[in-house]
Design brief:
By secondary structure, the protein is of the alpha/beta class. The chain has ten helices and eleven strands. Helix 8 links the parallel strand 7 and strand 8. It comes from Vagococcus fluvialis bH819.
Length: 317
């Protein structure tokens, strides 16, 4: 594949490689970042390879980040994985590198970098990293740890192979990764586990979700509610899937208060396209899984009305 050949040529040309991912990471962000780092460390032991990005919150069972200085970026190659737009890259230091490569499976609505490999057909960026290895097996080495991380990324972004982005190729890649001797059962348990406070917040979400007659839903998590359950925004992704388990719900938004008074918006759908909504509100993402921002409760109301309209249109009303 021509683009991956260009990427591996760039990797060969640099002695120092800094790998970033997106802020507030999920398993695919860390899986693709860490999986690529493990593959490159095994394949090019003479190179300096770092994973960069600050706190990983409750995903420390996957990977921890390296401590790096600004000076370390001098003459370095920077690779960003699973990050749709530059403002979401984990750490401003990425700007200090010599050359920037973007590897991502989100729609390329906000291009950045000197070289990009985008595959919206892929279930996850972790799947893409496995393909990168597969295309260049004569030069790259897979490790047990890389396989564990990539498998975690695929499981995370496919909802355990439940989401529409799961293809026969996704399942083939997962099967190939399972040939490596990591504890997949333990990993699946770790991905599924939630804390007691998140379990209690999930109960609140179930009891307080607002649903219209067509299956458009919303949950508002005010600062007061976050404080009550002792939860911060970075922990709330664990409850994104809760509304989706309710049979009649077709699309939903979870609105999470931010310290400055705005709201982070997490949008999900079982069919109606919602990334068009996200793009109108300082966001973007996949057709059925996107993120946006609301400046105030008035914009929260507007976004929910747009979710309602999308569901109504999908249902033919």
């Amino acid at each position: 594949m021509e683009i991956t050949k260009k990427i591996i040529d760039k990797i060969k040309a640099y002695e120092k490689i800094m790998i970033h991912r997106h802020q507030s990471p999920d398993p695919d962000a860390l899986g693709s970042q860490g999986g690529l780092a493990e593959i490159l460390r095994a394949s090019f032991p003479e190179k300096e390879i770092y994973v960069v990005g600050g706190p990983v919150n409750d995903l420390s069972y996957l990977i921890t980040m390296d401590d790096v200085s600004d000076e370390m970026y001098q003459g370095a190659l920077v690779i960003s994985t699973d990050t749709a737009n530059a403002p979401r890259i984990s750490g401003e230091q990425y700007k200090l590198g010599d050359y920037l490569i973007k590897i991502d499976h989100h729609p390329n609505d906000e291009p950045y970098g000197d070289l990009s490999w985008i595959s919206t057909e892929a279930s996850s960026t972790s799947e893409m990293i496995y393909d990168f290895f597969s295309y260049h097996q004569d030069e790259l080495k897979m490790t047990d740890e890389a396989a564990r991380l990539l498998y975690a990324g695929i499981v995370g972004d496919t909802g355990r192979f439940m989401y529409p982005a799961t293809t026969s190729h996704t399942l083939l890649v997962a099967s190939k990764l399972r040939e490596y001797p990591f504890d997949a059962s333990k990993l699946n348990r770790q991905i599924d586990e939630i804390s007691v406070k998140i379990a209690r917040l999930s109960g609140y979400v179930t009891e307080n979700i607002q649903v219209d007659e067509n299956g458009a839903a919303m949950v508002l998590l005010t600062q007061e509610i976050l404080d009550k359950f002792d939860v911060v925004d970075s922990e709330t992704p664990a409850i994104i899937s809760v509304p989706g388990r309710i049979k009649d719900i077709q699309a939903w938004g979870i609105f999470v208060a931010q310290p400055e008074g705005t709201y982070r918006v997490r949008l999900r759908s079982k069919g109606p396209i919602i990334n068009t909504i996200a793009k109108r509100h300082d966001g973007g993402g996949h057709p059925l899984a996107s993120g946006a921002n609301a400046q105030n409760l008035d914009e929260v109301k507007v976004i929910y009305e747009e979710i309602q309209a999308a569901v109504k249109s999908e249902n033919g009303f």
